[in-house]
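Justification of resources, computational component.

The compute hours requested in this renewal are based largely on the per-chain cost of generating structure records like the one below. Each record pairs the submitted sequence with a full structure-token output. That output is archived, and it is also reused by downstream analysis tasks.
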Amino acid sequence: MSREVHVRICERLGVQLPRATRPVMAFEECLDAKRVLDVLGKRLARFGLTLHPDKTRFVDFRNNRPNGTDHPETDGTSFTFLGFTHIWGKSRAGKNVVRQVTAKNRYARALVAVTDWCRHNRHQPIPDQQAHLTAMMRGHYAYYGITGNFRRLRWYADQVERIWQKWLSRRDRGSRLLWSRFTALLKRHPLPAARIVHRYTFASETLS
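The structure output for this chain reads:
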């Protein structure tokens, strides 16, 4: 595929899936996961689908793994896939749930792209800059805007504003754009606020 796509799989005849679909299945019990993996290929074959032998993995990221630490993104109790880090979190009811958040490397790469663009285009008219940054941010939200990831979307939005203010301050020597003036500029040329684009009904009632 030319781009990564998130889909929901529905077992019924006539369902058309993308040529390369990359689902993630999480299980509370390790044994259940192994059982499903053992029969998944046969079940998909009924619909003319196959599992890629080199891209199908069993990942043990149990919340109670031995030697676990308080840093799930580094202690083996998480894994990264398609730009999302899958970590353990708590539902509103206090139960353990799997959450998807923007991977650190993807988050950093997105901000580098914003920085590079602002640096090279800081002399462009403000409306043009606002339009381009708006497009970049909406594209980011369109991919990473899933239930449970709002905090990192908000971090991204805050950093984009800071980056824009930094490079607007360097348009002219000795003319620094103070934050108060930049806030007034944002009222005239606002950037899109962080928002969840893909709301999952099954998760929206459990993830905080």
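The chain is about 40% helix and 10% strand. Confidence is low (pLDDT under 50) at residues 1-13, 65-75, 202-208.
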